[in-house]
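Entry 14. Two folds queued back to back today. First construct below, sequence then structure tokens.
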Amino acid sequence: MRGRGIWTRRRLWIGVACAALVVLAVTLRRVGGEHGEEAQYDGPAFVVSVVGVMVSVVALLVDVLRRTDTPPELGAALRQTADALAEAVRVQWAQEARLRRLQDPKPLNVRWRWADRLLADDTRNIWCDRPVPEHLPGGNCLASIATAFEEVPSRRMVVLGSPGSGKSVLAVCCTLDLLKQRTSGTAVPVIFPLAAWDPGTTPLRVWLRERLVAEYRPLAATTDGTSLAGALLDAGLITPVLDGFDELPPALYGTAMRRLNAELDDGMPVLVTSRTTSWHSTVECSDVLTGAEVLELLPLEFAEATSYLERTARPLAGPRDRRTTVWTPVLAALREESRPLAADALRQILTNPLMVALARTVYGDVSRDPRELLDESRFGTVAGIEEHLLDAFVPAAFGGEGGEGDDSRWRAADARRWLAWLALELERRDSKRLAWWELYLCVPRVLRLAAPALLAQAITFVLAAPILLSSVGGDVFVFDDKPSLAANLVGNLVGFAGGLALLLPVSVARREGRTALPRQLTVCMATAAVATLGYGLNGGSVQFGLEFGTVTDGWVAELFGGAVFGVLIALYFGVAGLARHAVPLGLPWAGSPAGRLAARAGSGVLALAGLVVVKPWLLGQGLGTWPTVAGALCFTAALCLWAAAGRQGARTGVSHASEGRIARRFVTGLLHGWAVCLLVGVAAGGTVGAVACAFSAVETSRAPDLNGTRLGHWSHREAPDGVRTVESSTEIAVILVYPHEDARPTAYPHGSRPPSCGRKCESFDAPVTFRVAQGDLRILVDGHIAADAVNMLPELPEQSRIWLAQSAARHPLEGFLLPGAMGGVLIALIGGPASGLYRALSTPSDLIRAANPHVTLRTDRMASLSRSGVVAVMTGGVCVVLAWAFAARGGLDHVAAQMWVPMGTAALALTAWGQLAVARVWLALTRRLPWRLMTFLDEAHRRGVLRQSGAHYEFRHLRMQQRLASAAGASREEPRATVRTP
């Protein structure tokens, strides 16, 4: 890969040199004159310039073609990389050891013994006919495990233990000890949490390589087509320390063992930790680990526990100025022969390293005294003491000094309440993993449906505020009054929330398949029918056919229009494959240098398009409405895409998307979106036309015969060919708006706010004539200017409108069905490209192999912003074309104008990042979690309450989670059980 990159760069520079020579030749030709004219040279200066260019080009070619970039020897480079990795691993786990206070002053000295021979391989495969070392009393301790590992000829070892026996601490300490013993250029021990591995789908070596790349990003670099991580594994320069075999799903124990035996190279060292019971089950159902010796951690000796507690406790002045601690009287009581039951229970507790560590933390607080543990009324059993230590650990961890970078913003009582609630939620889901994107499921269902619409409207308002406040705001967002605007927002909220509930699957994993299209057809046709009927019953002008852009129908029309608009946006998202509950996104170009280059190129194209659009403004000329909107969109999307392209991001859930794969996904989504949106749109549009036609027929059936009559200042006439006219005898104030040159204008009454009036408007005070011919309603202004008249209908008496509509209702195909079908075509023209882009840019993040939760959150935020920006630009561009192409239809431009922003902002509300924002607000308002949620979780990890596993958090120990959950459940039930006394 390195050599290929070198030659790619060489071709690039050779192309640059050739381009320079071509430019030089063209220049000489132009200077030499045309049609035989005499050459015009500028004396010696010109000759010097030509020679300089030639020399520069030759020097560039010579420099490019020189082979001065020969890579160093591969073996030496890998050894240097291994040394750098060893330092990075040492720094990483030394910091983790400090967080666990393993160096303060030293870890508990847990002893071990060789396990049952039935759990290990044949000794001939392990020791190569050498005798197995005998167990030495006092010699097999924690500090000797690294030495024992090195002494095993196969350098494969399994460490078993009971819950809380210190297996994870052993993995950390053994890794640091092996790093101390390591010499330059040899294998590097690296800890891999097995909870992040799915042996059912992912080969072991692939997973090891991906974890190395996720944890240590420089190892993603390639050499000869192989990443440095893979090269280190192939060269035997990695010693995997596989921690937590028991944390794999029990159903996959056998699969995991088979993969270990099949995929570990002969002679490749490995250290595995597991619970004893889990390893027993694995051996019974599959096999032992080939060539691996197995040892078992023993219960902590009482002398070691007492020594540790005495050495780590704060000193106190005892009798005769002797040094004592708060533990001295307690431990003295435990040594007595005739000790109480509580003392026996405490002695048993102190055989568990986890409980000893908890006791140290809890009674490191000056406000506590461990003598309370001898109180038989409170702590007469092992379970009672264990629960007490678990209950007191979180307040102690957050109540005292947290060490370096201590954050005192979190009160101990609040921290315990928040963590207890999280533990209770995990217990309800029967899970050990806390995922930040799943907190959205804690929000009430009604709020989960309404929140995306509310969030989308809030973001839309923020982004549209500059346009609303500018001189072009009235051209883009057209509302007659504040009630109309409020009704439109309410309708949008209801329509979008209902569309999400009915048109989108709950999650990506639960897509409806073949039932999705019938559901989309049913929902959209029902919405179209209800909206059309409600619009007509409340005075809407459906009797004259379907027209876009009416602005004088009042707040009821805006309410139904907003609802239809919200359902339409939800339909687009459903067709694009989005779900109500999102998972974190990955950057489509993650792991692909070419993909990142393509993303940067795309951002450059968007920026260039923005410059082209705003070029008149840069030259000091005026800029219209749509160029202003389009330019702002292009620059915003270019900025988001450029920032996203500069990030490597978390690994995606699929192999990295090349440019070709992204293009294929876009084309597939485009065709699928066009097909589905065309079918649903034409069906819904046809429903609108049919309902409107039927409503018009019913309404006009009672029309009076007004031919030759006069109502007020309006005269009615019907020609023999069926053309009906209503003519005013007085002057009417009219505003004519011309969408573009040579287009038929649209008439608006005086006092309304026509869309795009800044382009070309004319005001008249003149007699007008309403004319219906072949179902087509027009208004003649000043006797000769024909304009679309639907917005002028309120000027007519109701009887006159019904009389004119009777003629229009005789042409259902031209007036109702065809415009409805055309509306369906417009829906498809917008929905197809949106669906294609969403499908191309929606790549799920790899949650199992992620480095940490913060990486997935940052990557999802960047991917969501760049995706929404690009889709908004694309939708804006499509709507601009449609507004221009169908401007003669009357007001479609402002309908299209209101589409581009929600297509981006509403999608943000359906991302994991947007839903986390909703969950954070709700959970903070209900006092279940803090406002700065991720900061708090990171602090809980730093203080040893939580640990990280990929993109998830986990409690330090399952027993801690269970105890916090039970305490939280009991505290919730207490108020219900309380009996009020008079």
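Second construct, same run, same settings:
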Amino acid sequence: MSFRTVDYVEDVSPGSGALPPRAWYPSSDAASLSLNGGWRFRLSPTADAEDDAFAEPGYDSGGWAEIPVPGHWVLQGHGSPIYTNHLYPFPVDPPRVPTENPTGDHLRLFDLPDDWPDLAEDGCVLRFDGVESCARVWLNGTDIGEFKGSRLPHEFAVGHLLRPTGNVLAVRVHQWSAGSYLEDQDQWWLPGILRDVTLLHRPAGAVLDFFVHASYDHRTGTGTLRVDSDVDGRVTVPGLGIDVATGEPVTVPARPWTAETPTLYDGVLATEGERVPLRVGFRTVELADGLIKVNGRPVLFKGVNRHEWHPRLGRALDMATMREDVLLMKRHNINAVRTSHYPPHPAFLALCDELGLWVLDECDLETHGFTEQGWRDNPVDDDRWTPALLDRAARMVERDKNHPSVVIWSLGNEAGTGRGLTAMSEWIHGRDPSRLVHYEGDRTCRDTDVYSRMYAPHAEVERIGRGLDGGTRRRRELPFILCEYGHAMGNGPGGLADYQRIFESYERLQGGFIWEWIDHGIEDERYGFAYGGDFGEELHDGNFVCDGLLFPDRRPSPGLVEYKKVIEPVLIDGDGARGTVRITDKQDFADLSAFAFEWSYQVDGETVESGALAVPALAPGESAEVKLPQPPPAGPGEVQGTVRAVLAADTAWAPRGHVVAWGRFPVTARPVPSVTASTRPVPGERLITLGPAAFDARTGTLTAIGAVPVTGPRLDVWRAPTDNDDGAAWQTDTRYGPLWRRLGLQRMRHRIDAVETEGDALTVRTRVAPAAREAGLATVYRWTSDGDRVRLTVSVTPEGDWTVPLPRLGVRLGLSAADRVRWFGGGPGEAYPDTRSAALPARWESTVDDLQTPYVRPQENGARADVRWAEIGGLRVEGDPEFWFTARRWTTEQLDAATHRSDLTPGDTVWVNLDHGQHGIGSQSCGPGPLPQYYLRAEPAEFSFVFSELG
């Protein structure tokens, strides 16, 4: 075989040899053979380093490696992954790519099963569901074509080339190609055959392409089905008594498909040569009255952006992982997913059909890196590239058009503007007028049916809701969504409840999609999980790739738990004084009949009474006030009431009793802890004693309470800045993390001005301030005791010009022996001022280690909110008022210095923070910072703690 050129790699065309795109279906009665599994593999440094001889039958690949397909060779020991947010990791000179172009040759030898149909009579198709970024394919030595479009299917007719045994499938995959310029999504660059490879038998008269049109008329309660097919046949839906020819419409009474009630009817498309199972969902999507409506009703998207990710497998997901994602979404009240920024594995959409999620299906297109040159030479505004753009649009639409879950097509993401996008929009509108078209970059909405933005701050979103946003008349008459908001990088996102309140206040605002679903951390023995820069990349964007509601191992983060609470489908608003609870159905389509309701009363965080609560099956948007049983008799404790909405029966996505919503409300107030000062401080040569407490005589620092040694406490204002504290370098808004460092809050000095033992109190006067700055905090510690307990009252007065809020305000102390923690307060997970909706006041218990939130890049974490009391290391601490509680086996400074979890080494001391206040979190890693009401301003403050030794 002669040496071949590789001009196709830099050709802007989508490829050659592939069949026209068509609808995907998971199975039929036609034979199929999966070619997934072990493939022989050879990696070359350039596209032309090797000739084509490896594709010939009989080639000796004995010295090659073996890798699993689907997969990415850089995650299988061959080369390294690269992470960039938007920068191209090669010189921008479209369509040219570097000479250094890692190229993977793949070989798969296979025999046909003994029962495979006669090759002389029928055809066969070889299907690739995804290859990054450019592939050339040979079968039995014959070149059958090449293609680009990494997350899109490509099929080739191969029946004439197959043999009963000894078939040789050869695939050459190039990491870089002209197609790479169209695939600059915020993710790892991971070459390889990342999705399934399948051989499909195509008997005479087999199904080619078909389009299931299944609309629903909400006025008559009927569905109309018409299946257009390239090959004539019949359509049967036994559950509806349907038996009609293809192309013939039929209208019958039917239940509609929605994300809340995902009713699917099983049917069959039968042609002369094949029977294809259908799953039919009746629903109508329209732009009406300036709103996105489904089945005549507006929808509110409570969504998430989902990249495909697995910490070991990259984007090569298996069915179990995809199902786990959908189940987790449903269990956390998510109702919509944007397939950022490419069509997902087609089986994922089948799961969305089955379990119920609205889908914004996004094309495999992003050219974000051209922003570095003012969008000059952007392919979407270059007619040479338009055929490739239309090919990508067609392969998405044709593949996914029969999924009822798909309600909006998206042209792509962050690709600027241009003629190519207009061409895509026109083609999609013409091919499928039954769905809407989205593209966030189209600020005039010339080509789209939705006004979409990313990371707009709360105030701007509210102005848009009120119709005060300006812009073209067309745009002002369109519905609005936030296709990305709530950037979930590290600790956060904050402010979700505030966004949701705005969404629910204005009909034009139809919700949004959190960025994003999962951290893209790569499992790594050095760090636990690796991120950008950990593989020696010359260009990278660090841990910006870890910005999900799930940790890389798919454990829910506190951000996901918060989001679940914020978007609950039932609003539960209790009034303890009146003994009632107001229940509101916040769903768009379903009544409350799927839920059971439970009431309970808690005294000091422990449940003392509970029972079932009768709630009418309210329709969407309806409310009812329900009388609660009498609370327990008044006593010395704090009484709270709780109402929960749980699943009344098992569902496909969660068992009976799964909690979908809850409300907690006060009945009687919490008694404030008090200590009557009845013991005076006793000065000694080295110690001062006061009740059970001992203090250093020179500094007035607490050293012990009873037999419990204590280091501190002393004022603490520093926290290890979160990703959202630090913000993004490109943002023009104030980023407080860098300002805190510049001010020196991480290196505060503590000057002792006086230690006084007059009267019944030990008073220590100090000034806490950073070197090189005049601003400081005059801090007074006043200790009193009743003989058994000691009370610390901390008074803080800012001095000088404080131009920034504080990260935190409280005291830090050290305990030499501590493991288990008990507390009455918010839990079970962490919470901060603008991320506390899900913090349920109750009695909780944990180990110190389990209090930590394992963010991939270490940062401030683990605070429990609204704590009344906590018990740790032999001490009980009560707060006046409630406080934030944090405990960890390393100092804040050590946490701040760490870049990976593996950098944190537990010490001999457990450091405990008792905070009067915390600064909000926000989402400034790529969005707005905390709202002003969540700022911890440098203002005079006073707070108290009561310490006692546990018996």
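Quick look at the second one. The longest strand covers residues 875-888. The chain has a mean pLDDT of 97.
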